[in-house]
Amino acid sequence: MTAAKSPQQAVASSTLCSIHGSLLTLATLTLISFTYISLKSLHSPFHDPSINSSPPPQVISRVENFVEEEDSPFSDIYHSPEIFRLNYREMEKNFKVYIYPDGDPNTFYQTPRKVTGKYASEGYFFQNIRESRFRTNDPDQAHLFFIPISCHKMRGKGTSYENMTVIVQNYVESLISKYPYWNRTLGADHFFVTCHDVGVRATEGVPFLVKNSIRVVCSPSYDVGFIPHKDVALPQVLQPFALPAGGNDIENRTTLGFWAGHRNSKIRVILARVWENDTELDIMNNRINRAAGELLYQKRFYRTKFCICPGGSQVNSARIADSIHYGCVPVILSNYYDLPFNDILDWRKFSVVLKELDVYQLKQILKNIPDAEFVALHNNLVQVQKHFQWNSPPIRYDAFHMIMYELWLRHQVIKY
């Protein structure tokens, strides 16, 4: 036996039917409208092949700027492949950066010192940001503000550390007094870029800049004030590379491990002292003399499985990007190093990350890595090569775009 409906149930049922009926009517009318418009458009002169159907210039520009290319499938070398793919596309469409126009390009501002050598990453960023779709001339449309002062250019002109600090402080204070944007967040939506360690030292003399703004630096060490969730690790890439990229050449890699370079840090001194006479590890006590042969250093990367990357005067080393480029699995031997793109890439999928104390067991650690694991590391390494390459103009997923993605992630937490 069916129970009688209460008045509340009857009203609810009647209301529900009314809503369903309204939605059905609305859907029918919408379908009829779209059909009518579509049929009408077939007879429209704009669909006559003899008539130019190009959209207005502003529409063309928008299409060119925001064309969506098909992405290749992302593997598990990324911590969250699908999230990265979706966020990256969102960044490409929407992210805008305003570059402060102040400062003479012939002195320390706006333009790079050069885009070659160990500090090419700084130069490329200064150049790429102006070539990219991310730049806006309207500060009200900007998500972040770039402070275009180059300590590398100061270094090139022989400026002392003390004077660098004064120049940086005066420049930033002039921007604060001239524009309203810094004071909205006390600089949280501002960033600067420096690869040379002199830039880190010079800017550290301006505490409010280091504390509040986003630092994009090549020496991201936890023990000298680098804040991972705020600052960004800039990969140190020595470009142009002397030889083509390596990879998919495992059969040629017969040397277990290789390192050669200046002994300008404690870990490098220990590495050379412990392993320089080993028969399986190719460890040099110094740099390879160029007189010994052309590009011998770079060619060693091609025939080595694991390239040792100890920190130098700072935690970072251009040798990491060299190893990646030449297809040699990097062995990170540096404490407190926030590796570039560490929150995007799973470094343990394409490198070997060790503590400095592991240097004494280095050979055994590398020999204990199974062949299948080495093959996987090598193959994954080839996949990330594009992320450690600078280009002009920049291209999707290269080093510039990865840095912009890191900045995009950080801007999301800034509210005003």
UniProtKB/TrEMBL annotation:
It is a single-pass type II membrane protein. Residues 92-368 form the Exostosin GT47 domain. Keywords: Glycosyltransferase, Golgi apparatus, Membrane, Signal-anchor, Transferase, Transmembrane, Transmembrane helix. One of its GO terms (molecular function) is glycosyltransferase activity. It holds the Pfam family Exostosin_GT47. The chain crosses the membrane at residues 21-39. InterPro entries: Exostosin, Exostosin_GT47. It is found in: Golgi apparatus membrane. Its main location: Golgi. GO terms for cellular component: Golgi membrane. Belongs to the glycosyltransferase 47 family. This is Exostosin GT47 domain-containing protein. It comes from Vitis rotundifolia.
